[in-house]
Amino acid sequence: MDKFKKYFIHQNFQKKISGGFTLLELMIVVAIIAILSSVILVALGDSRNKGVDASVKSNLDTIRSESELFYSNNDNSFLPAGGSTFGIATCPVYNASGTNMLSKDKTIADALAEAVKRGTNGSSCYNSNLNWAMAVGLKTDANTSWCVDSGGNSKQVSLAPANAINGTTFVCN
Fold this sequence. Notes:
By secondary structure, this protein is an alpha+beta fold. The chain has one domain (23-163). The chain is built from four helices and five strands; from the N terminus they run ααβααββββ. A five-stranded antiparallel β-sheet has the order 1-2-3-4-5, with helices on one face. Helix 2 (23-73) packs antiparallel against helix 4 (106-118). The model has no long low-confidence stretch (mean pLDDT 86).
């Protein structure tokens, strides 16, 4: 190969390298980054909702544990002395002079408030001297609730919170 050919090939190669990226190449890279970002954001949203559901379940589990202490400290009753039954309704908030376990006990009321705040589609509670139950809507599915009761149930119910507690037996459906 003569010197002229070598010089010509070398110069042509350098021009291609120093020319930079074309607009089309840059647009393809940006499109790929946008697609990957959207996939990651969708997965992140799902993970966030699952984390919220785990928080709801954890708070309701705290209530189940605390209710056992409340029961033994209140003469084997889920109601405070002089308390009255709280029929199936939206869960109450803390009240130091409350007439049911759900509002009277600060730890239970705080865990319940946190579960309701993080959940979706509302809440439903029941409290008598022998039974209690509560359900809070889960974030991942608006028609699903996490329900716990005095019978030891702690389960996902495929109903909104308003229908998750059985109106006859007062346990999770």
